[in-house]
Amino acid sequence: MRGELRPGYKQTEVGVIPEDWEVKLVHEIAAIKTGPFGTLLKASEYSEGDGVPLISVGEIREGFLKITDETPRVPEGVIRRLPQYVLKRGDIVFGRKGAVDHSALIRQQQEGWFLGSDGISIRPSKDCHGEYLALQFQSARVKGWLLQNAIGTTMPSLNQEILRNVVVSLPPTKAEQEAIAEALSDADALVESLEQLIAKKRQIKQGAMQELLTGKRCLPGFSGGWEVKKIAEIASPSSEKNTAAEDLPVLTCSKHLGFVDSLGYFKNQVFSKDTSTYRLIRRGQIGYPSNHIEEGSIELQNIYDVALVSPIYVVFSVNEGVDSYFLHRVLKLDSYRQKFKIATTSSVDRRGSLRWPAFSEVTVSIPPLPEQTAITAILTDMDAELAALEEKLAKARQLKQGMMQELLTGRIRLV
Asked: Structurally, what CATH architecture does the domain formed by 227-366 represent?
């Protein structure tokens, strides 16, 4: 049974909102434009270095734009010829295909960038605050609606008609819209600062790994003594079969390399349901995906005591005198992934995958066990710090979503 409405509130198609708020279709409060089609803008007109960024699907993330070295640039000549596609501060941009629930607001420093052919922009009217409308598109309700109403099955797509019919709630004055946006910008600033800190910490960790795991920098109290060993000299292959009666977590190998919660979850995926050929991997053992070399190694540590890995994994245990976490980290270095690629290419295995005979011949450089342990402790501390920051970031994002839910529906009024 639906509870009684609070005084001063009304039930609408977007939920309960204040009586003085309105419900509007996006096309009533904004102009929608699709990027240049066909011969209007050819790839040959892009510039490698000069000009402004071309905003397309690849640049649009969840609430922000990411510009990389691969982002095409649009020269001045194209801007003069097609000024209608130049983005202005307050515009909201979307990708037409793929992550249709992603959108980003064009801010002051991004004004003048160019809308790509696979992008769509929304330009709010003078009575609608751009940042407020952008926040509506980041709300769980609108993002869910976009995903539900996107066309296509294999790859969801947006078009102007879909965006025209998005329904949003609006406070009665632009001043209240601005107040809501300003309040949420503080939450945004916290999220952004944590994201930047995490990115910086990851770079520091990558640098530390490159120096410590290769012997370029020795820790205080240690003085060299590194040895070059074949993997066969410091590890032994394991082929322990899956004979467990109970379901075990399954480690899959893909771009989302990692653990899944249970075999039940695994069975709902596109992978084979038959795990009879899968091997066990135990805590402290290392698994290397033989035909997904770029993903690097994994080590079963504190999540599970035992799990299953698919037959594509080379599973091995380290010998005494070797720290498994240290070796696991070494094998994730780019230089070693390149060694495994070479070993795969030269392997007689026509399946194009790296098996134990070729894997075991690859050489690694390792220090004495005490130094391995000391390096492991440093990297483990860095992992723990990153994990704590990631948890803090997740809580900050949850806080922002909670604030959005309260402010974008008028449950909390600021003016």
From this structure: Alpha-Beta Complex (3.90)
What's the CATH number of domain 22-170, 3.90.660.20, 3.90.870.40, 3.40.50.720, 3.90.220.20? 3.90.220.20
CA distance 295 to 256: 9
Residue type, 85: Y
pLDDT digits (tens, 9 = 90+) for 287-315: 887 765 555 666 765 556 787 777 778 88
CB 253 within 8 A of CB 295: yes
The structure tokens listed for 109 are 């420093």
Q: Among 365, 362, 321, which residue's Cα sits nearest to residue 231?
A: 362
Joined tokens for residue 25 = 């279709």
328, with CB counted inside 10 A (0-12, 13-18, 19+), is buried
Q: Which of 271, 266, 304 is nearest to 285 (CA)?
A: 304
Give the torsion sign (CA, 218, 223, 224, 226).
negative
- DSSP 8-state assignment for residue 88: -
* Alpha helices (H) in 252-368, listed in sequence order: 263-267, 324-331, 334-346, 356-359
Q: Give pLDDT tens digits for 100-122.
A: 999 999 999 999 999 999 999 99
Contact at 8 Å (CB) between 178 and 132? Answer: yes
Phi and psi angles of residue 157, each rounded to the nearest 5 degrees, phi first: -135, 150
Residue with tokens 């993002």: 143
Are 393 and 197 in contact by the 8 Å Cβ rule? The answer is: no
Amino acid, res. 81: R
* CA gyration radius, the chain: 27
In whole angstroms, how far apart are CA 45 and each of 37, 81, 306? 14, 12, 55
Query: 382-387 contacts: CB < 8 A, separation 24 or more?
Result: 382/201, 382/204, 382/205, 382/208, 383/205, 385/201, 386/198, 386/201, 386/202, 386/205
